[in-house]
Amino acid sequence: MAQKPSIPKGTRDFSPVEVAKRNYIFSTIKEVFEVYGFQAIETPSFENSSTLMGKYGEEGDRLIFKILNSGDYLKKADAKLLANKDSLKITSSISEKALRYDLTVPFARYVVQHQNDIVFPFKRYQMQPVWRADRPQKGRFREFYQCDADVVGSNGLWQEVEFIQLYDAVFSKLQLTGTTIKLNNRKILAGIAEIIGAKDKLIDFTVALDKLDKIGAEGVTNEMLSKGISEQAIEKVQPLYSFNGSNEEKLNQLAEMLEASEEGTKGVKELKFVCNQIEILGLESASVTVDVTLARGLNYYTGAIFEVSAPEGVKMGSIGGGGRYDDLTGIFGLKDISGVGISFGLDRIYLVLEELNLFNKVELPMPKVLFINFGEIEAAYGIKAVQKLRVNGIKSELYPDAAKMKKQMNYANRREIPFVVLAGTSEIEENKYTLKNMQSGEQQVCTLEELVKITK
Fold this sequence. Notes:
Layout: H1 16-35, E1 39-40, E2 46-48, H2 49-52, H3 57-62, E3 66-67, H4 79-84, H5 87-94, E4 97-99, H6 104-113, E5 122-131, E6 143-152, H7 158-173, E7 179-185, H8 186-195, H9 202-209, H10 212-226, H11 231-237, H12 247-257, H13 262-281, E8 286-290, E9 304-309, E10 320-325, E11 339-345, H14 346-355, E12 369-371, H15 376-391, E13 396-398, H16 405-414, E14 419-422, H17 425-430, E15 433-437, E16 443-446, H18 448-455
Parallel strand pairs: 1-5, 7-8, 12-13, 12-14
Antiparallel strand pairs: 2-4, 3-4, 5-6, 6-11, 7-9, 9-10, 10-11, 14-15, 15-16
Helix pairs in contact: 1-7, 1-14, 7-13, 8-13, 9-10, 12-13
């Protein structure tokens, strides 16, 4: 017996209903992106490995899916490395390409390659799948869509303000109230690392701190110790784990704490500006909170950091995030191009909307009119009417087979098609159609023009 087919872990098939719901989210995000002045681009699903590797930190690099070279990929491999089974070192010789891990690094590569054709500041949005060799769990997949918006070529903090407004606008349109937009600044984290004497361990410090909500204070402490951060330094950090108060109170405490750090002080000022402007402008459905433990472990962030949490009571990781990267394009040779961007986690947003029953208004695309097939002559008569209805924007179809009437009517019922058209010998002779309303059961004989008018 043939083995039942399956799909890789961390990937999914989507039914017509699920696709309709996903498209609803896509179209909502796209509409807001364009209202805010962003333009769409697309990049390849895979990039040269050299484009991706080394841009996400050690942990991120491990999660990148590598693509084996075509043909005899072992031909150019180092025999000694093969014998030693040194997979990490041998990878570069057998794999020159990789699936994209996110949309930001490919975007930076795009900006550098097309810099002479771009008008700066360049506002782009991108909605495409990405791949990560992560451990699958609820809300975490190996293949998933990101919906990104970025601005490059501007240092202005008004972009950060606008991105918070954009998040709020999207969630308002999705009727997803109660989301929390967490804010921090990498300069603040750098300042904290400086004053506790762990400046040379900034990356290790931020990667560990970013896991606070996942592994707890003890887990963060153990990871920092394993990375060589001293117990004295960790002891100085621990008050941050329970940092509370209003945003203004938190920022005032940070300003005092980081007074001796020039970079940390700059980060506090930047964060104050953003929070003050949002306070003045107001938000409709989201709230903003300063979270000093938010680090977002990606190495390329240099300024503001964003992360969006689902409404309280919904067990889900972040449903959005982003931040400022002052010189991401510098890794590809284009210096001094600042950028800032955010991302929506479509798959997680889907799960949240599903859990909160917010998909009530999403309709599955389906025919509005089904023409019953009584045979070749009747089908030929019906297909002409189908063509006329489609020209008028009315979703219509002819049942493809001259099957039993019961089977065709069951098909209409199961697909919830509101109108059925019956056209037999008498209708053809009179050049008319019998229209049945499937909800009320009422039938009426009408001309083609009347049929268009009624069903439209």
